[in-house]
């Protein structure tokens, strides 16, 4: 990154007024966005107003538009839905309604609007902006406002954030609320699976998504459903037969349950609806299976937002305020959104037009086009689902005579099993023989290796921990024995799934190639660790699940602290020397401070934090939450900080401490980890196949170049294969962390939202881009 840092201190909001409203259907995480807009707005010295009940409140005015303070948004981070209400508004669709709304805003000097809603709400906001000067002229003619007001409030700035559980908005990878809705769906599916297993039942699940199949598709991927119906990809003619054949084949393979997921807007290729009842009747009539329908309905909108949605919404909220401060009369209304792991700004109407294009393509039966317009993330999901759900008959499978071994290394991480399942199934589809290694490199040396089939990995996606078993042992002390086993089983490629140890192991194998020819095979590392400390990737499989566990516990602890009043909790998280869990957990749980190794702290900072909490106890928010990474400082231990806070806070607040420990490693994987694991694993397996073909000479595989031992990581917007030898320079081996970590940029965000003065480098914040139409080729290379 060569750019000069640009700090937002010179972006002052003095004299500006920002109105924030939520409109359309509610979504979990909207409150986190509202909170971030309010606090960032106040931080830059702007006035911030709530507009209650969406556009209806804007039209009605009066008590519906009120100025808010820092404390107004306390304790809403963990609440689902929207605390400022949302309503459908007929009046705003008329010019009279918009005229009244403009009058109400001008009365309070509000010329900046932050709208959180779906495409309908955002289109309405854009129309309002286009009409603004005309509306003011009309108000002046009617004598409601004077000419000075017309000049002073000449233009309206609008920034949108997309809050919609359907993820149906083009231009953004994830909308606020989608991840939480997936959490609700997956919780239900996991619960249903146990009862279906007991009775050998078939379950038809109907999920939301009238025009968009994202929730259905991703939940089908995340639970390994037998069949999925979505509006963008209707089944071919005669799907009834092929579905029934597949269900009965699965039963014949001793699978005791079938799960079919139907999006509420599912259609066949003649645009006729496919309902969950229709699917159920079909299964009962043709196969006589005991079949039940479960319609999830509004459960999907409810509940507390996931860690991902809180962080997404907080980042978007801050970005929205920055976009409003930088807006000029000439900048188009924009949407702040996420592309990969990067905040971007996109012209609102371009996104809306593209979203409408999808619907048009579907109405006209151009389904391939509809999938492409949905974006590369959707397309990748669909391609991965197709790869993993249907096993082609053995006769149709290619035969490569290559043997590929898969092993887990390091500590267990949720999502490892999903990755193993995807690798095994893609490997079999590509024609390889797949081998599972039990207990990491230790098991490898002892010959604990067995062939693994398509059916063996059924139902693995939802299982936490590591079914194959995992050990932290590095291969260095067993090199000879491992080479022997590779010769015995004729292993032509390795896939190593694990944390920092997995990365180190592959470096050792790479370095041992000169001594052992057996290691001259393609090797791919998939980062899987709760600590998220592997170089070469922004995310690791398992980190999202751990983050959700931390945030859930913090929510409970905050609730207990609110009840007792004037209490500060100090919570220790795992992560080795990597502060990712502590920092992101603090951002998602609304903590007051997070102590991490990457940002050294001294006694003065501890003192400042105590004083900050003492001040906070004088307000209406009488509780504190402080996170500390386990290795953040060898002398300022959790006990030390607890004792210091207890002593210094005497008479003002009391203190409690909590070490979260191994609960962060356990539990069923979150939808993000299941999906991330499944997708990167499928991609890695395809890479292995390509490398095997490239390096096969004279009847054997021989790969000795650096680029044949790679780590597959998510970097900003793309998935990239990076040679482990090249990653060495980016690694701090003593502390087992990457030298540069992207999330440190989000640290000031947490401080600002906790009311600390800090400087925030906004040079990375989104510049206005255009909505890119990607080519079909890009979908294969690109994002998740």
TrEMBL record:
Primary enzyme class: transferase
Cofactors named for this entry: Mg(2+)
Domain of life (superkingdom): Eukaryota
GO BP field: canonical glycolysis; fructose 1,6-bisphosphate metabolic process; fructose 6-phosphate metabolic process
Residues that bind Mg(2+): 119
Active site: 166
Catalytic activity: beta-D-fructose 6-phosphate + ATP = beta-D-fructose 1,6-bisphosphate + ADP + H(+)
Chain intervals for the UniProt region annotation (N-terminal catalytic PFK domain 1): 1-390
Keywords: Acetylation, Allosteric enzyme, ATP-binding, Cytoplasm, Glycolysis, Glycoprotein, Kinase, Magnesium, Metal-binding, Nucleotide-binding, Phosphoprotein, Transferase
Transmembrane segments: none
EC numbers: 2.7.1.11
Matching InterPro entries: 6-Pfructokinase_euk, ATP_PFK, PFK_vert-type, Phosphofructokinase_CS, Phosphofructokinase_dom, PKF_sf
Binding site for substrate: 164-166, 201, 208-210, 264, 292, 298-301
MF (Gene Ontology): 6-phosphofructokinase activity; AMP binding; ATP binding; fructose-6-phosphate binding; identical protein binding; metal ion binding; monosaccharide binding
HAMAP family per the UniProt record, alphabetical: Phosphofructokinase_I_E (MF_03184)
Protein name: ATP-dependent 6-phosphofructokinase
Species of provenance: Apteryx mantelli
Gene: PFKP
């Amino acid at each position: 990154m060569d750019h000069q840092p640009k700090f937002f201190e010179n972006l002052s909001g003095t004299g500006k007024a920002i109105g924030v409203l939520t409109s359309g259907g509610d979504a979990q995480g909207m409150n986190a966005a509202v909170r971030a807009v309010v606090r960032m707005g106040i931080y830059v010295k702007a006035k911030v107003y709530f507009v209650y009940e969406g556009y209806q409140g804007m039209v009605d005015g009066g008590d519906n538009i009120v100025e808010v303070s820092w404390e107004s948004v306390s304790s809403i981070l963990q609440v689902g839905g929207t605390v400022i209400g949302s309503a459908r508004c007929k009046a705003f669709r008329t010019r009279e309604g918009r005229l009244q709304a403009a009058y109400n805003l001008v009365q309070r000097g509000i010329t900046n609007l932050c709208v959180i809603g779906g495409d309908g709400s955002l289109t309405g906001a854009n129309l309002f902006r286009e009409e603004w000067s005309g509306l003011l002229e009309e108000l002046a003619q009617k004598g409601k406002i004077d000419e000075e007001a017309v000049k002073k409030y000449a233009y309206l700035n609008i920034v949108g954030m997309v809050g919609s559980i359907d993820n149906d908005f083009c231009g953004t990878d994830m909308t606020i609320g989608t991840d939480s809705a997936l959490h609700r769906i997956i919780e239900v599916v996991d619960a249903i699976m146990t009862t279906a297993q007991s009775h050998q039942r078939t379950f038809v699940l109907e999920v939301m998504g009238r025009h968009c199949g994202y929730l259905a598709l991703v939940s089908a991927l995340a639970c390994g459903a037998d069949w999925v119906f979505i509006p963008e990809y209707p089944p071919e003619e005669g799907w009834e037969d092929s579905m029934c054949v597949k269900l009965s084949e699965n039963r014949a393979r001793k699978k005791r349950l079938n799960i079919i997921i139907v999006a509420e807007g599912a259609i066949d290729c003649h645009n006729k609806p496919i309902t969950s009842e229709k699917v159920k009747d079909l299964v009962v009539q043709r196969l006589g299976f005991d079949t039940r329908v479960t319609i999830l309905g509004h459960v999907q909108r409810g509940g507390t937002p996931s860690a991902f949605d809180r962080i997404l919404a907080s980042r978007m909220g801050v970005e929205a305020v920055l976009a409003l401060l930088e807006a000029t009369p000439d900048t188009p209304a924009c949407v702040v959104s996420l592309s990969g792991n990067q905040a971007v700004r996109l012209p609102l109407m371009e996104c809306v037009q593209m979203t409408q294009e999808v619907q048009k393509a579907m109405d006209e039966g151009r389904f391939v086009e509809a999938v492409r317009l949905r974006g590369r993330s959707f397309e990748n999901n669909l391609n991965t689902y197709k790869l993993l759900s249907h096993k082609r008959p053995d006769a149709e499978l290619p035969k490569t005579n290559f043997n590929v071994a898969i092993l887990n290394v390091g500590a267990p991480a949720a999502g490892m099993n999903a990755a193993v399942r995807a690798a095994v199934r893609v490997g079999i589809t590509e024609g390889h023989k797949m081998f599972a290694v039990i207990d990491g490199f230790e098991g490898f040396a002892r010959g604990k290796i067995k062939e693994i089939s398509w059916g063996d990995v059924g139902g693995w996606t939802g299982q936490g921990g590591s079914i194959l078993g995992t050990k932290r042992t590095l291969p260095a002390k067993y090199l000879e024995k491992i080479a022997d086993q590779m010769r015995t089983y004729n292993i032509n490629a390795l896939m190593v799934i694990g944390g920092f140890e997995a990365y180190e192991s592959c470096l050792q194998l790479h370095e041992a190639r000169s001594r052992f020819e057996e290691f001259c095979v393609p090797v791919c590392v998939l980062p899987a660790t709760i600590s998220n400390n592997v170089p070469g990737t922004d995310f690791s499989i398992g980190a999202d699940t751990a983050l959700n566990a931390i945030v859930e516990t913090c929510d409970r602890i905050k609730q207990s602290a609110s009840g007792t009043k004037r209490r500060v909790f100090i919570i220790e998280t795992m992560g080795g020397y990597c502060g990712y869990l502590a920092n992101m957990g603090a951002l998602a749980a609304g903590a007051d401070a997070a102590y991490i190794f990457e940002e050294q702290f001294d006694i003065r900072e501890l003192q400042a934090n105590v004083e900050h909490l003492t001040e906070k106890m004088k307000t209406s928010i009488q509780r504190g939450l402080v996170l500390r990474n386990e290795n953040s400082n060898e002398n300022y231990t959790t006990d030390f900080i607890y004792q210091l806070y207890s002593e210094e806070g005497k008479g003002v607040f009391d203190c409690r401490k909590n070490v979260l420990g191994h609960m962060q490693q356990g539990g069923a994987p979150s939808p993000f980890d299941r999906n991330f694991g499944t997708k990167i694993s499928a991609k890695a397996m395809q890479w292995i196949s390509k490398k095997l073909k490239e390096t096969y000479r004279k009847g054997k595989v021989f790969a000795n170049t650096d680029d044949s031992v790679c780590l597959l990581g998510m970097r900003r917007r793309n998935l990239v294969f990076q040679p482990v030898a090249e990653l060495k320079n980016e690694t701090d081996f003593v502390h087992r962390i990457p030298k540069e970590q992207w999330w440190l940029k989000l640290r000031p965000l947490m401080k600002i939202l906790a009311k600390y003065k800090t400087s925030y480098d906004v040079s990375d914040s989104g510049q206005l881009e255009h909505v890119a139409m990607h080519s079909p080729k890009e979908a294969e290379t690109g994002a998740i």
